[in-house]
Amino acid sequence: MEKRVYFRNKWLPYLLLAPQLAVTLVFFIWPAYEALSSSFFVQDAFTGAQRFVGLANFKSLLGSDTYLNSFKVTAVFTIATTFLTLAVSLYLAIKAHKVLRGSRLYQAILTWPYAVAPAAAGILWVFIFNPNVGLVSNWLEALGVNWNFNVHGPQAMTLMIIAAVWRQIAYNFLFFLAGLHAIPASLLEAAAIDGAGPVRRFWTVIFPLLAPTTFFLLVIDIVYSLFDTFGLIDAITQGGPGNSTNILVYQVYRTGFVGLNLGNSAAQSVILMGLVIILTIIQFRYIERRVNYQ
């Protein structure tokens, strides 16, 4: 039988919704509207004077090699970061789930990276991979690898992916570990009795039951790669060398705050917002169909 909740005061539901609606209005609807309206103007960064140019800002972006290159960089960075974050965090969660002694200690250690601020995490990885004094760079030099992420674009991208994955693993780890705790042990025991080995138990029992958690983290990790890695990029590479790590969100910053081209920067933010909306719709429309919530 369907159960409904009735409020004695007809204004109470609106009061309960008011804080969330206010946050959505102030931090999403209003900025989105301002970005959309600014994208049709050329604005002087010092006087604030505006001139309506229609779709000129968007047309200039389509003819910009730097901006089009940022799409390719973003695609590589997002796919690599999302896949590695999900894979590594799931592996660590499975290993931690099997630990009987000191499991709380392992879990605490694996969740610490998420508490590190992006800028601080970026500086940490810069020191570790510094071409002159970095510990890992010295090991690579001893192995004959010429490591200098300030010069070589692929090395800079590799470092950015490592740093981004390292910081996001903790968030994914917590959800995967909670999902593993929710799987009944009787299902795994039954599969083992039927002769299923560890690999087969994972693909036929564990992973399907973790599908809702995996789908949720897939959405979160894609958004993280597109937006929340700004601090890491700014601290480590500033989009270089040669725009090899210049993803879309950092290009918005460089155009608007460094180049002071506010209209063009607003147009980029609108395109980025549209891209995220399209990706989210695709995920919920096509990928979620394969997710079993029972």
Automatic annotation (TrEMBL):
Question: PROSITE patterns, from UniProt?
Answer: ABC_TM1
Subcellular locations according to the entry? Cell inner membrane; Cell membrane
Give the ABC transmembrane type-1 domain ranges: 71-283
**Keyword list, A-Z:** Cell inner membrane, Cell membrane, Membrane, Transmembrane, Transmembrane helix, Transport
Topology term for the membrane:
Multi-pass membrane protein
InterPro entries per the UniProt record, alphabetical: MetI-like, UgpAE/MalFG_permease
Return the CDD domains for the record: TM_PBP2
Gene name per UniProt: ugpA
Q: Which residue spans traverse the membrane?
A: 12-33, 73-93, 105-128, 169-190, 202-227, 266-287
Question: Into which family does the record put it?
Answer: Belongs to the binding-protein-dependent transport system permease family.
Q: Say if the entry is tagged with keyword Oxidoreductase.
A: no
- Quote the protein name from its UniProt record: Sn-glycerol-3-phosphate ABC transporter permease UgpA
